[in-house]
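ok so for the tutorial part 2 we go from a plain amino acid sequence to predicted structure tokens. step 1 is just haveing the sequence, like this:
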Amino acid sequence: MTDENGNMIPEQEAIHSPFLPFIKIQLVALSFAKTLHFITVYEDLGFFVIMVQRSFIDLIPFIMSYLFFQCFWATVFAVLKVEIDGEVASAVGLGYFGSLFLMVWRNSTGKLGLQSYSGLNAMPKSALLYVNIELIWFAYFAQIIFMLVIMLNFIIAIIDQTYVAVNKNRNIFVYMNKAELNEEYY
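step 2 — the prediction. this is what the tokens look like for a chain of 186 residues:
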């Protein structure tokens, strides 16, 4: 490409699309999917590819419920007026609820951070203040037990169930994929 004076413009400067990062991500995802498609022909690797594909499909309901409970716990902490953790507060552009969501996400995946309520301590001492602080700690421990212990064990159970189902039909999947590639070729 050239500019109005006839000078060559480097290719990186010539492309001005806001969708370019999304197109690159889509290209990588499609390349990965096509590579997986060709790997399924090999008897040793085809089983694992089908296992990954079926795991993604089986995990969709789990991911939806996981995100629902993430929003639930973030809402609970927003109602209780929990302050944002120092590490999460450095994230720019999330807002209060987004920061709470990120804080709950980190707690749910094992990066535990204690709840902060120093702003509540500045308020006049009353029974409601102490009840609020106790509710913050109760919600914190309930969220940790539910999200970290129960939900992460659910994901292990889902993947194990998928493994058993795919392993039971291992040879069928291998021959089905070989026949599919033969049909595409001929």
